[in-house]
Amino acid sequence: MSFAVAPERYARFMGRYAEPLAAAFAGFVGVGAGANVLDVGCGPGALTAHLLSVGAQVAAIDPSPPFIDAIRARFPDIDVRRGTAEELPFDADVFDAALAQLVVHFMTDPVAGIRQMARVTRSGGLIGACVWDGPTGALAPFWDAVHTIEPEAQDEALFSGARRGHLRELFEAAGLRDVEEKSIAVDVVHPTFEEWWEPYTFGVGPAGDYVQRLDEDGRARLQSVALELMGSGPFTVTATAWAARAAV
């Protein structure tokens, strides 16, 4: 799957959900003004922007060069590094909190990534992560359309953290205790079907990869099925995520 895409395209694909999710997620973890926070898998900066807006100090890391370039241009005064969650290039006990929004399900080794987040966080600090729920997350309507045509198509429901209790299991496997998990949801209004559909053609993530693999007829058929399911708009997508938090 690819995240080596223009940040503007990623923002149109996922930022429309990630930005409102950031506020709900940070509120659930309990991060606010004055906290020194690491944004793990920062992307173009949806969570970083929210954390800065509430007065937190933020460092950020992501493996995607276009995203790193974009967030450095957007926030030139913060520490932004290229790297992965599994090998965080930060000293131990540096941060008050380490957060991973919509990242755990793409980690090569989620337990190692969460363990690294705990390593760089001071004792008593907070670890938080959230992942879209498989059947009711932001991308669920797209995969519903896919499954109408191809019932056995692999969606994102089996990814790490995308079901009740799995983030808790991953946190506990990484050595964290007293893990709290809950669902959080955001409502996103799409004015037209075309505004909702077009970002799926940008080649972002598993959904974008699926569309890219289709021939012209296959894309047209999927678009037609999705239009029948979603309507011409406006319509609201209620996107549900699982979130977990624990103290180090």
Automatic annotation (TrEMBL):
It comes from the Bacteria. Residues 38-127 form the Methyltransferase type domain. One of its GO terms (molecular function) is methyltransferase activity. The keyword Transferase applies. InterPro entries: Diverse_substrate_MTase, Methyltransf_11, SAM-dependent_MTases_sf. Keywords: Methyltransferase, Transferase. GO terms for biological process: methylation. The keyword Methyltransferase applies. Belongs to the methyltransferase superfamily. This is Class I SAM-dependent methyltransferase. It comes from Candidatus Mycolicibacterium alkanivorans.
